[in-house]
Design brief:
Layout lengths: L4 H10 L20 H6 L7 H11 L8 E6 L5 H11 L3 H18 L7 E4 L4 H7 L3 H13 L9 E2 L11 H8 L3 E2 L8 E9 L3 H12 L4 E9 L5
Parallel strand pairs: 1-6, 2-5, 5-6
Antiparallel strand pairs: 3-4
Bound molecules: zinc ion.
């Protein structure tokens, strides 16, 4: 609902918009995260070693052409707080905003990216009902708005309602998700950008990516809001 400006100004005084990371009041020109927090949150693009390690993780596992992430985890936990707000406080606009940030960063690097469809890692329908929204799908929408590529949520389905992976090691995560995804239609010859919220061990992305390859995708590149690689 769009409120008339005087009403929204009054609401702003009574209920100031807060930074989801530090909970300080946001300035009029700030959205979701204050500039101070945003500047202190590490970027994946600046982490040469972590980027190489993540690429190595997917070598020979997925036919990716590139792997991108906007944020990288750190000990200060600012990024963790942001990801927690996205996952558990039903904030689709926040997920979409991160998608736009990453999209703009990608276009600064190069004008064209080898992507036909953007496909979010799906939630199982039961989990979707519980949580109310798929944060990865909203992240995909933000990315799509900037990159001008279509989002195809229906391209991948979660056919097994997997258990939460928190605390599981890599082997157990893989056992938990390896049969969880399927693709109902052919993706013959398509280059897919598979998107998820956080990359931890890569097990979910690999399992979903393999289902896309099985359906005919020729490339499965990866975009995530944040890399937590090495932080599990
Ligand atoms: Zn802040």
């Amino acid at each position: 609902m769009k409120l008339p400006a005087p009403v929204s100004d009054v609401l702003e005084l009574v209920f100031p918009r807060l930074c989801v990371v530090c909970e300080g009041a946001l300035l009029a020109e700030e959205n979701h995260v204050c500039m101070t927090c945003l500047n202190l949150m590490p970027r994946f693009s600046a982490r040469e070693e972590e980027r190489k390690a993540v690429e190595k993780l997917f070598y020979a596992r997925l036919p990716f052409e590139f792997i991108v992430a906007y944020f990288a985890f750190d000990k200060k936990a600012r990024v963790q707080r942001l990801m927690h707000a996205i996952k558990y406080r039903e904030n689709p606009e926040l997920a979409r905003w991160v998608g736009r940030l990453l999209g703009h960063q990608m276009l600064e690097e190069q004008n064209e990216w080898p992507v036909d469809w953007i496909v979010p890692v799906p939630l199982h329908p039961r989990k979707l009902r519980q949580r109310g929204y798929n944060q990865s799908a909203w992240f995909a929408r933000g990315l799509a708005e900037v990159l001008h590529k279509p989002v195809r949520e229906e391209a991948a389905q979660r056919v097994v309602n997997t258990r939460s992976q928190t605390g599981m090691n890599k082997t157990r995560r893989w056992e938990n998700v390896k049969e969880a995804f399927s693709c109902p239609t052919s993706l013959e010859g398509l280059k897919i950008l598979l998107v998820d919220d956080v990359l931890t061990t890569g097990a979910t992305l690999e399992a979903c990516g393999k289902a896309l390859v099985k359906a005919g995708a020729t490339a499965v590149s990866v975009a995530v809001m944040a890399s937590a690689f090495g932080h599990d």
